[in-house]
Amino acid sequence: RISIGYLKFINKFNYLFNNNSSRYKINNLCNSRYIFFPGTPMGPGRYIYLNINSPRAEGAGRNKKYYSTQASNTNNIIPSKEQINAITGLLLGDGCLRNPNSNRRKTGNYRLQFTFKAQVYAFICWLKFSIFPRAPWARGALKGLCTDNLPCPYPKENPTQYSFESRNLPFFTELHKIWYSYNSLTNKFIKLVPNNEFLNLYFNEVSLAHWIMGDGYYNNSEKTIVICSENFTYEDIIRLIKLLETKFGLIATPQKRKFRRPKKG
Q: Boundaries of each Homing endonuclease LAGLIDADG domain copy (predicted)?
């Protein structure tokens, strides 16, 4: 796990949001017309075109005729850069990318999945309906990243957690190549920290906020913000610590989780 000094974090975090608040407008697409996906072992880096007023399909360019004939295709949906910032933070936490049909992993598209404890239900709804809303320009099948359904409770009676998922999209299939590595021994994909090029582009103060909301807590005894990161390697944790210092001037340290023994009697 990663530990950050609380007071310095709060001071720095307030400064970052006060000076970048105009950048975090969920209902507007980013000013940049292109989203860059850094290269992976599976292929070189490439740009994905993003229309300022509407979601666009990869390779659509400026061809208005192409867009008009493809507008009803849900697969054309591409997140805004602000949404990718949020997704980056959530994937550093407990968020995941999965293919719902294991038989189609080579051809089927992936989707985002999130599970949170019931105590933060308000945050879950805010995330689903404000960060990943149904697109206001949507017509027909062209909707947002998620449906309008409420988060799913588990169990249904007295739920302890809630979950929701996005649509299956080619965009998330591409994102999966950056965030996951296939382990031939376990026959499973393992989530890893993306390369520095991707993090430099898409990890910002918004990402940090969602990372903490998804997998962080306040340690009152040590007066620190703790982010659980046990699923990543020590090398990746050190990379994240250096990223926090480089981007935000935050000094963080790696820590081992302390297990408390139950009291006798």
A: 86-258
Q: How is residue 53 written in tokens? A: 């007023």
Whether 194 contacts 177, CB under 8 Å: no
Residue 242 lies in a domain: yes
Q: Flag whether 264 is in a domain.
A: no
Give residue 75's domain range: 2-252
Q: Which amino acid is at 16?
A: L
Are 49 and 33 in contact by the 8 Å Cβ rule? The answer is yes
How many Cβ atoms from other residues are within 10 Å of residue 178's Cβ? 20
Strand ranges across the sheet with 252-254: 216-219, 224-227, 2-5, 252-254
Type and span of the H or E element at 226: strand 224-227
Q: Give the residue carrying structure tokens 């699923």.
A: 231
Contact call for residues 218 and 96 (beta carbons, < 8 A):
no
Question: Nearest to residue 180, comparing CAs of 78, 2, 44, 40?
Answer: 40
**pTM for the full predicted model:** 0.70
Domain count, the chain: 1
